[in-house]
Specification:
CATH architecture of chain A: Up-down Bundle
Mean pLDDT of chain B: 85
CATH superfamily of chain A: Formate dehydrogenase/DMSO reductase domain
Number of strands of chain B: 4
Strand content of chain A: under 5%
Number of strands of chain A: 0
CATH class of chain A: Mainly Alpha
Order of helices and strands of chain A: HHHHHHHHHHHHHHHH
Number of domains of chain A: 1
Order of helices and strands of chain B: EHEHHHEHE
Number of helices of chain A: 16
Helix content of chain A: over 70%
Strand order of the largest sheet of chain B: 2-3-1-4
Low-confidence stretches of chain B: none
Distance between the termini of chain A: 14 Å
Largest interface: A-B, 67 and 67 residues
Structural class of chain A: mainly alpha
Shape of chain A: globular
Low-confidence stretches of chain A: 1-16
Radius of gyration of chain A: 23 Å
Oligomer: heterodimer
Chain lengths: 464, 185
Amino acid sequence: MATTHSDQRSATAAAAESPVLAPGHSYGSITDKISSIVLTKGMSRGWLFGLAFSFMLVQVLLVSVVYLIARGVGIWGINVPVGWGFAIIIFVWWVGIGHAGTLISAVLLLLNQSWRTSINRFAEAMTLFAVVCAGMYPLLHLGRIWLFYWLMPYPNTMGLWPQFRSPLLWDVFAVSTYMTVSFLFWYTGLIPDLATLRDRAQNRFGKVTYGILSFGWRGSARHWRRFDAAYLLLAGIATPLVVSVHTVVGFDFAMSIIPGWHNTLFPPYFVAGAIYSGFAMVLTLAIPLRAAYGLQDFITDRHLENMAKVMLATSLMVTYGYVMEVFFGFYSANTYEEYLTRNRMIGPYAPAFWSLILCNTLTPQLLWFRSIRLSPVLLWCIAIVANIGMWLERFVIVITSLHRDFLPSSWGMFYPTFWDWSTYIGTIGVFLFLLLLFIRFLPVISIFEMRELLHKTEEEHDHE
Amino acid sequence: MSSHHGAPEPSPLYGVLGEFSDADLLLEAAHKVREAGYVRTDAYAPMPIHGLAEALGAKRTKLPYLVLLGGILGGLAGYGLCYYCSVIAYPMNIGGRPVHSWPAFIPVTFETTILGAAITAVLGMLALNGLPMPYHPLFNVADFNQASQNRFFICIESVDKKFDEAAASEFLRSIGATHVTSVEN
């Protein structure tokens, strides 16, 4: 048999722990189970309620944006000196959340981790929707949203060109590339599954819609080989991309000379924080999803446990970042850096700082215990705490550095307004709304990769 | 389905399609089809099967070279854009610093390299596969919708020099096909 040895080895290693796919499944049963979520007639009450609720939150966003356009960014709590408020905090928060999706789909694919298979599809969708939410903020923050195209280099009558030495312009390229590549990766993986849905759809509308979306995929061996090559190449390309995106986000801060931001630690520390928050969000979504749709056979305890381990590891990395920030602050022998470090811990925003230590450093230590990693309820609670912690981290980074800078005469305070909160809650609505539509109309688990996983698992059994 | 209007086709048949129950049987059968001298063949499966395309004698895919080219072109375009904007179109003298400040151009160059490579990977894969192709003769076979679910097929196409409907059908049965259908064009 022409099977590769590495495939067998990874499958054997996988079987040593609890399985990544519950036993007793066939190609048909996997296909049935996953596609039935999409192809069932009618809509469940819980889903409709969720959709209506998130749609309501989308309206909150629309109202906030209309009011923002009418009145300008002054409706937010930003001021001088705190010119970067919620818009940047939440932009970084959403981009960070997105990173786990790419990490799961790309990095774990390259590392031949078979447990990624049942969570990669919706993690990729999560990435895409998180980047949609993130991408809104820089535009909203412009104030004159309708002039967003000035960010793009194009010949214009003003004779102006963008400043390519600015990290904020790098961000435009990084985030738009990230969004495009995430979409391509997600959609490429969907093509064979869309063909499955086309072939299983009961009504003409479903057949035609999924037929168009699947591009006429017919599963030819030659097509599969090019598909595999493209998918692997995309994974290889997406891996450095995901690192670069949050590095550039880190540059937005680190390239400035603001105390607390001007730090070489920022890019890697931001990437670790992004992975931490992203895995927390995947757990936040995966645990209710598998319960609601009975997907425990595919998203097993092993997946939850592995994700919890990644969270623990990245929590330790961000903790290293917090420790180093304090160290650099005092080691710098710079009045402003020293003051900032002390002000973070005992100044007016100290409660936010200590809450973030509680959320991101102390709480994740519970994940050392296997019993906690195996308890979906506790894990979900820890994931929520991590989401809050990462939000607080960005709040502390942005606000504490800005509110006290070089001249005491220009010190100030930042208090979020109603519109800050309503815009934030609105983006959560957009995220949930898109996610619920995705769950209902596209396969949440990659069906063809589950078949592949089953094939590998069977081969490994044959060899025993 | 017997009459097909338009230009006269070289053959009313697209080929014969044999169905196999299992991925391993499909792979074995693919080797046998190739050994029997059939060249214009293809196999269909609901997931990628390692070595299947090679078993049918398919050549290596050129896709990686295209992706490399796409990445290089993307990178050149990105760097060219930075250079054009900062050096030619809108040079700014800031304290006598060089206008061609190449380290600051690297992040954008990097992103456009990735973008060029990723777009080439996806569009190249689709183009080489001849997709989108909404109609294909195989879709006329009733059972072929199982090819995206849990069944495995080999098709010997009528354009093959050695093709003969009866012989090819018999051959597919002899190598373990559970069901053989003639596919009309």
